[in-house]
Amino acid sequence: MKNNILELEPRNVFYYFNEICKIPRPSKKEEKIVAWLLEVGKQLGLETKRDKIGNVLISKPATKGKENVTPVIFQSHVDMVCEKNSDVVFDFDKDAIQPYIDGEWIKAKGTTLGADDGIGMAIALAILASKEIEHGPIEALFTVDEETGLSGAFALEAGFMKGKMLLNLDSEDEGEFFIGCAGGKDTVATLETEFETDLHEKSVAYNIMIRGLQGGHSGDDINKGRGNAVKLLTRILWNGYQIFDARIAHIDAGNLRNAIAREGKAWVVVPQELATDFEFYLKKMNQLFKDEFRVTDPQVEVVFEKTKLPKRILSEFLQIDILNALYVCPHGVLAMAQDIDNFVETSTNLASIKMDDQKITITTSQRSSVESRKECAVERVSATFYMIGADVESGEGYPGWTPNPNSEVLKVLEQAYVNVFNKKPIVKAIHAGLECGLFSEKYPDLDMVSYGPTLRDVHSPDERLLIDTVKKTWDLTVEFLRILK
To answer: Are residues 353 and 427 in the same domain?
Structure first.
């Protein structure tokens, strides 16, 4: 068993992936990875350019005799979701991801791995660097800010690339080809923070934390029944107020809009005479959650400790409004597809609640492969927070990608898969968002398909890459280029 990533096959793919892990690349802070890509293109002696927003395009001419083959674009995004375990000290703006081999997987120490979509980047770069592969004209497009708004794809200008077929290297199930995806939109509610200083004469303060949840991708994992830290913490606090007059001094749960909330914490105050019963209640909720999520989140736990008294707490009316709204706010699958078996059509993710001295911010995201259902989900979430007087704003969103079962690039990739593995791949749509929908608006004749090696638990510190599927994806890609007419 190999312990060094650089010894894994294909060597060139894992070389580039290892280099990518060294470079900080949070969404909207991709300057270092963009500069590195420009330098790699220059070192390879290939035409390299970037547009105004930071998307990079590296072009490689056809090998001899392949000049008239259909031009192909390999596309991946450069940014990564930055999630870490609460006990891990790590600065995503400065520190290198620390990948390691764990059996058949590659993982990172306490953080997201960034194989979404670092491994897609690595495959594209290895193709550009190869001198053995026969191929027609190739372009490699590296887009910025896919994870927090798809702004790179939104800003992509018509005419920036010339290819006729696009292979999106951002899917996470080897052997499955994706030809459609859901559209999405973010909805954010904000309220002004109101405090009061009248604590009970004799009070006890606690720090309460929900941890040990798997979390995951708010598109790919939304139908797996996993616990949501915002929802579970709300459940504790809602009943805590009703039964023990528990009052909130601070609350913080969840993180990124496209990740299912894994952790949450609250600073609360209860009357001293109820403290013992309140602690018993917290222990009871800990066991309750362990029972409820014994399959999906066996490591979930509610932990608490006594702490100093706060100087102020949320006003009672504001606390009641927030807890009521969070409790009834929808989260999870809203509708399954009517014409595709076991496919999520519409969902919503209650992603986070954040609080400071001025405001409380609640972030959610909605997805659907039916545009009208997506807007309905947005309206439903908005109505929840309008009822408590919140300011609610929804982003511009991004379109879905309509499947084309007669796609030529799909036919060639399917044939390549049969050639290499002697079996047919699975062709399907995905509930997660892909940039292909936006590409089709700027390049309406672009023929697209999405594929990639197997990843699990992306957007969480449990993210992992199945090693042998990288070589499978590489072999498939090489065969695709070989047989493309």
So the answer is: no
Phi, psi of 403 (to 5 degrees): -65, 145
Q: Are 109 and 64 in contact (CB under 8 A)?
A: no
Catalytic residue among 30, 139, 145, 146: 146
Q: How far apart are CA 304 and CA 306, in angstroms?
A: 7
Question: Is residue 364 domain-shared with residue 319, that is, in the same domain?
Answer: yes
94 plus 192 within the same structural domain: no
At 266-308, the pLDDT tens digits run 999 999 999 999 999 999 999 999 999 999 999 999 999 999 9
CATH code for the domain in which residue 196 is found: 3.30.70.360
- Which residue out of 79, 147, 435, 463 is catalytically annotated? 79
Do 190 and 178 lie in a common domain? no
Picking from 362, 394, 426, the residue at the C-terminal end of a domain is: 394
Do 425 and 372 share a structural domain? no
Q: Considering all CA atoms of the chain, what is the largest pairwise distance in Å, rounded to the nearest integer?
A: 86
CA distance 95 to 88: 12
- As for how many domains the chain has, the answer is 2
Claim to verify: residue 171 and residue 193 sit in the same structural domain: no
pTM: 0.81
Confidence of residue 3 (pLDDT cuts 50, 70, 90): confident
CB 126 within 8 A of CB 10: yes
Q: For this structure, is 79 an active site residue? A: yes
Range of the domain at 283: 185-394
CATH number of the domain within which 423 lies: 3.40.630.10
Residues 421 and 308 occupy one common structural domain: no
Cis geometry, peptide bond prior to residue 10 (ω within 30 degrees of 0): yes
Residue 146 annotated among the catalytic residues of the structure: yes
Q: Which of the listed residues 394, 410, 445 is the one where a domain comes to its end? A: 394
Same domain, 318 and 411: no
Instruction: Report the pLDDT averaged over residues 474-484.
Output: 97
How far does CA 162 lie from the centroid of its chain?
A: 29
Q: Report the C-alpha gap between 482 and 485 in whole angstroms.
A: 8
